[in-house]
User: Fold these one by one.
Assistant:
Number 1:
Amino acid sequence: MNHKELSLKDIQQESLKILIKIHEICQKENLTYYLAYGSLIGAIRNNGIIPWDDDIDIMMPRTDYDKLEVYFCKHKEELAPLQMFGPKLDERYPYMINRISNHDYVIDTENEENYGLGIFIDIYPLDALGNTLKEAEKRKGRSCRLASLCFLSTRLAFTKGNTKSTLKLLFKLPAFYFSKIMGKKHYFNVLERISKEQRYSDADYVGCIVWASDDGNKGVFKKKWLGTGKLHQFEDYEFYIPDDYDSILKKLYGDYMVPPPESEWIAHHFYKAYRRK
């Protein structure tokens, strides 16, 4: 590729511009969102993006998540070069979470087909998990296994990836071939059915059913922890974080205020970004 590769700082700044626009839309449309995962740690620990992070994550209650998708479809022309990718919007798209991408850029991603994505922000839908912790952990555990297989079904080749456990790696190879036989549409359909088993408004526990990166039960949150959200500094702006962010981050990461050793200061995506000609 003849384009000049963007630096990590460039990627972070362009991702931030996308977040600013999402915030504006959510304010205008009265939609709830929260900074999530590494971006939430960054907000609390760094008042901004973690220096080695290569994307921004937000999460939204399913109803608001769906409304944002509809908004992007209705305002496609005026929102350009921003574009929403999702399983209902593009058959080539390999994930069950939506992404908002800037089409002025292109990314070269390892081990997946090119579907036109540029610099992006991940949007995780929050669905109902149940009214008891036992029920929530059971549903999350089931969906986590399915989401892992869904991810494997979209990989071009088998790789170790981020798998650190030797035991998990032993199971990963047969799981990869099994997932290829079943196909991503199978997992999309099953995960979507699970996400609709209970309404978000009726549940005491919530989480992202369609993604497995939060290691199962760690991604089970009391809905009251999220609340209506509150503004917090993130770079030179303010964005929404959960009301009880501390409980969420401790559940996910333990002592999140202690940075990892410097040897782990690496981006977790495997891609290069370029400005599109």
Number 2:
Amino acid sequence: MEKLGRNDHCWCGSGRKYKSCHMALDEKIHHYELEGHIVPSRDLLKSKEQIQGIRESSRINIAVLDEVAKMIGPGVSTQEIDRLVYETTTRMGGIPAPLNYEGYPKSVCTSINEVVCHGIPSPDRILVEGDIVNVDVSTIYKGYFSDSGRMFCIGNVGEEKEKLVRVAKECVELGLAQVKPWGFLGDMAQAVNDHAKANGYSVVVDIGGHGVGLEFHEEPFVSYVTKAGTEMLLVPGMVFTIEPMVNMGTSEIYIDDIDNWTVYTQDGKPSAQWEITVAVTQDGAEVLTYWESPGPDVPACGRWRKRYENVVAERRAAKQRLSGKGNRDREIPGRKEGCHSLFYHGKKRKQQKPHFCGGRRRDPDSGF
């Protein structure tokens, strides 16, 4: 990391002096680094302008999934979903990020039942009652990337599948509640994994989330099976996905050896995954992509962002009470307790081509 003088221009490009811009933040990060923690490099911290660009990309991303939600149902082919994603994205000025990325042939991933992720749309795969399907949309707009995915239940899917889909969503919500500055990615991971296990499910180990925004897949690798207090330090300006893949049975998976993309559960049992993109802020987290459309009483930022603005306000109020500031009699509102991979094809990690996510496979012994 380049060492700057107090009066040098800040590395972030703001034009301000380092001492009045990022110096205090860098010093705090360095303190954690000296304690042995994994810390983000400067290039992982997005500027306000960059986060605004990711927000604009996210608006298209959300709108595309809203259109999918309107048309998906029994009798719809996954190829029709792909066509809708391509047409809606391009009509709004965006580019589907998966299309032709590392040879991926379609604009979206559609993963049904026992398919964990990277399912390739096909005119031959017709959705039928009882299917659960993840639609994973990734968008480029003016050079900025956004990423999210939603689960859809096709007709009556039965109690077991319905519960799996619901718990997978709850895992994201509980993980999101742990995203706050100066915490750790492991805080989020343990919340996710604990909830999945408590419901009798497993979380995929070899595939996780990722940084996003300036590239399709950036550092860090986001695991959902590590312990609180571990993994990378969360610093304002980081942007990454929360997208645990929750399996009804074993966490073991395999890749289709014909298309070299589709990932299946080893035991053939269903898997569910929701995905959101989040930015770490000074007070907590901003959800950039989410799975609910704005209601009539909520502005375009949507229910998720509104919800977490409320959470931030609650935290501030609680902090005031603890510090003796503000009205001590004020009641603090209660709160209710939401890939991509570093996965390599084949066994020889150093010699094999990485999956389109561009990362590495985690070592099952060391956890890294």
Number 3:
Amino acid sequence: MLRNKLFAVIALVLAISCVLSACSLIANKNHCDTLPSEATINSEDNNLITSTALPETTTVPETTDTQSPDDVSSFNVDTMSLEEKVAQMILVSCHEDVDVIDAITKGVGGLCLYAFSFEDKNKYEVIDMTSYYQSLANVPLIISTDEEGGDVNRVSINDNLRAVPFWAPADLFKYGGWELVKSDTEEKADLLLSLGINVNLAPVCDVPLSEDNYIYSRTFGMDANNTAAYVTLVVSTMKEKGIGSTLKHFPGYGGSVDTHENVAYDTRDYSAFENGDFIPFQHGISSGADSVLVSHNIVTCMDAEMPASLSKPVHDILRNDLGFDGVIMTDDLVMDAITQFTDGESTATYAVLAGNDMLCCENYDEAIKSIVNAVNEGVISEAQIDDSVNRILKWKSDLNLL
């Protein structure tokens, strides 16, 4: 009898325990359902970067066994017309008066978005915008912006997208050392990727000659080796995150004036570049940088007549001496340093002949027609166009766009 009562008590205890466990599970489920669906990107209580969590939308697809980074067979230059190939070489500089939709439908290779494209938009509106752009493209787009930190930010100056703008490179190191430089790069990549931006036109590799130089506030500082260490960390971190990088502004700004407004001459000896300016670019290339942006400076020791962006000798140095085999692009061809130099004439043919794979320009129609005509007239070989487009498709494949 006692044994039966004991068994009854044990059974009752077990039953109560099961009921309580079930209630706990239900309570926990209800609690989880009330949590926000997305993680907060930034800390509003601290100017330092504190969040490095990867948002759901930035997950990088894994490469399958049937798809390698070199596999661009579904988008092959052999199946493209000349016009389609040339259009891939255009990175449209999306200023306010540019018809972005028209540019995409004409097959351009990519877009460079400026601050007005993000102005007053929240995260989901930006995602809708970039997703729509991609949906219109026959070949997936490079969608880029300049998010250097400090003076040049396009995205984080919108407080709907980040509580505070990203800091300048030198300030990051000053207040948080390499750890903060890395976490800043990670968060920047996470944010841009979550918005549908697959390339950040950074890092700045320039080594200024003094604090009075135009480029100074955008740089890591006046020491080439320290800048090289910064570039190495940023490029390798961007590569880990799966976002495209662009070293700029080759062959180095030095003490030149602002090429947005003036023609700039750099009269230094070639040894100054070998012992200084080239060093950060060499380290960035060794770290796997995807692209290099060439400046509009006229560097007399390399080419006394043409701006670097239109100079074959400058591009030959980048390809042959520094060993870069990725995508070379021009700085924005609408800058005054170019329009003043060419007296407003189209520069597209000059840019391709110099060795650029992508042209950053707003006059995409004019550029495409100019290059196609130059090929048809035998001024530019179609083999050179094919080489450039293969590099661009390889880059897109590396970014898991193809």
